[in-house]
Amino acid sequence: MCGIAGIMMRDGSTPNTDILDKLANAISHRGPDGQGCHISGTIGLIQTRLAIIDLSTGDQPLYDKDGSGSVLIGNGEIYNYLELRNELGREKFSTNSDCEVPLQTYLRDGVTYADKLRGMYALAIHDPNENKLVITRDPFGIKPLYYVEQENYFAFASEAQALINADLVVPIVSDRKQQELLQLQFTCGQNTIYENIKRVWPGETIIIQAGRIVERHLRPALPQRKPQTITEKDALSKLDEILHTTIDIHQRSDVPYGLFLSGGIDSTILLSLMAELNDKPVVAYTAGFSDTQVHDERDHARMLASVTGADHHEINFGEEDFWLTLPQIAASMDDPAADYAILPTWKLAKAAAQDLKVVLSGEGGDELFAGYGRYRSVMRPWWLGGRNVRHRGIFDNMNILHDNSTSWRDRITSHEAVSTNSGCNKLQTAQAVDCADWLPNDLLTKLDRCLMAHGLEGRTPFLDPVVAEFAYLLPDKLKVKGRLGKWLLRSWLEKRMPEAKPFDKKRGFTVPVGEWILNRGKILGGLVAKQESIKEIADVSAVEKLFITEGKREAFAAWSLLFYALWHKANIEQINPNNKNIFDALEG
Q1: Please, are residues 401 and 561 in contact by the beta-carbon 8 Å criterion?
Q2: Among 7, 36, 64, 90, which is most exposed with the fewest C-beta within 10 angstroms?
Q3: What does the H/E/C string look like for 162-208?
Q4: Distance (Å, whole) CA 211 – CA 17
């Protein structure tokens, strides 16, 4: 896990070292264990390292030992690197780094070099023989990668803020993306909320020559086929095999690792297998919320940890944490995701980073095995209440925003059409829509920024190409039965750990932001309403009223505006919160 950045000049000049220094400084939190630089001709590359595998010889950049001159920098982990090293021939390697493998597969396979990789990665390769730059992102977008095309250069970085802080682009909000963020809590597609900053698509490889994009290739995350026929018995057997293999390779590490344990189906499965595959107790971290009305997961997680002998750490996130930490957290979410799960994730990461460098987490289980209630909805006909995913925005019919159009859903509608035309059924289409944007631009962005802010690597075993192909092609009846999703995962866990009670009704994860906001609603609403960023988009009096109104939708809308105001303060107005609380940050 690391941070990467680079620039390719269009005018034939050598990159300015001051720019490279600024890029390195902006991503230094992602890699506190070292820094590397490569400058050759019109190309400059920067990598900051969080050392996980091959601590002694794995520093980057990595160079081809056979003299081609090709060089690689990378962010992430290649979990099947040992198998690929054997396939390629061990004599080709000069280090034990997992990231030397994609350099050698590139020299063998060219632009399709990433097709055999099982991992999370953002990679950049300088090929001097063809004077080109090749950048690649993993199929699910677990690792971030952003770029900007300007008149004189092409530049990229692991975080959008690095391009801004290196003075390569001015932070200007896109009106269209602003609406997406407010209505969805994340933004969709290639374009970010910043004018002129784009994302590398999940699974995309981009070829740049003379500072211009000349070629693109895409490795899809999901197979474009209808469900396959398989019995539940055979599916359980296959699932068991895949889970064991996948969790095993996701534990490859030369540093201590642990688990984020929510007590839900996905993290419990990880706990069960990690306990089996390790000689030492699993180190597990669970967040909870004392003195609130929301469900606290710690009791159930504590019981599961006891069953498996895990070393369990319980982290409380209270109202005081909310007031004190949200400005700093919002500032770190440079590519904004207004997901209140950023709050406990941030504090969990801070605690875990005191003892570990790696944690496994259950992101992706709901998307691939159909755990969300909205999936059951799309399977019903319209006359029985069936609806497409995300049919309603957060602010729909609330008369708060100036722009009440529905253009925020255009990207989702487009994905629904593409998936349907490729032969996917309704359930698969809903899963594909979530995997295209909600997963990379909300859940995985949350995980990346909250963990990397503390120098902690997050691994997501469910988002593995082998797991994904198996899960996505399961028949609907093995994903959803009656009012229960993730049927096959529940069945597997029931046999393995009945104490987990996997067939009990799922209790959704909630953070009590609504309670906390109402406690200071009058003062907070006035502060939020007077922000220029809020005046531009919303009716001031309606905003003030919102913050003193009870209701689930109202709470979510108030949270979204509060997050946006703080995010805008830090990332657009460039006012560093400097450990200020919410009130001081809004006043500043």
Answers
A1: no
A2: 90
A3: HHHHCCCCCCCECHHHHHHHHHHCCCCCCECCECCCEECCCCEEEEE
A4: 17
Residues 79, 252 contacting (CB under 8 angstroms): yes
- Tokens describing residue 252: 């490859």
Contact in structure between 572 and 432 (CB atoms under 8 Å): no
Spatial CA neighbour of 340 closest among 29, 558, 576: 558
Other C-beta atoms closer than 10 Å to the C-beta of 281 total: 15
Residue 287 φ/ψ region, left for φ over 0, alpha for ψ in the -120 to 50 degree band, beta for the rest: beta
pLDDT in tens, the chain (588 residues): 699 999 999 999 999 999 999 999 999 999 999 999 999 999 999 999 998 998 888 899 999 988 889 999 999 999 999 999 999 998 899 999 999 999 999 999 999 999 999 999 999 999 999 999 999 999 999 999 999 999 999 999 999 999 999 999 999 999 999 999 999 999 999 999 999 999 999 999 999 999 999 999 999 999 988 999 999 999 999 999 999 999 999 999 999 999 999 989 999 999 999 999 999 999 999 999 988 888 888 999 999 999 999 999 999 999 999 999 999 999 999 999 999 999 999 999 999 999 999 999 999 999 999 999 999 998 887 666 677 778 889 999 999 999 988 888 888 888 777 777 777 899 999 999 999 999 999 999 999 999 999 999 999 999 999 999 999 999 999 999 998 999 999 999 999 999 999 998 766 668 999 999 999 999 999 999 999 999 999 999 999 999 999 999 999 999 999 999 999 999 999 999 988 999 999 997
Phi, psi of 466 (to 5 degrees): -70, -45
Given the structure tokens 């290649």, which residue do they identify?
Answer: 78
Residue 459 burial (C-beta neighbours within 10 Å; 0-12, 13-18, 19+): buried
Distance CA 208, CA 8 (A): 8
One-letter amino acid of 538: A
**Cβ neighbourhood burial of 477 (10 Å; 0-12, 13-18, 19+):** exposed
Contact between 48 and 35 under an 8 Å Cβ cutoff? The reply is yes
Burial class of 86 by CB neighbour count within 10 A (0 to 12, 13 to 18, 19+): exposed
Query: CA 426 to CA 437: how far, in whole Å?
Result: 17
Q: Are strands 257-260 and 358-360 parallel, antiparallel or unpaired?
A: parallel
- Distance CA(435)–CA(471), nearest Å, equals 13
Pairing of strands 257-260, 198-199: unpaired
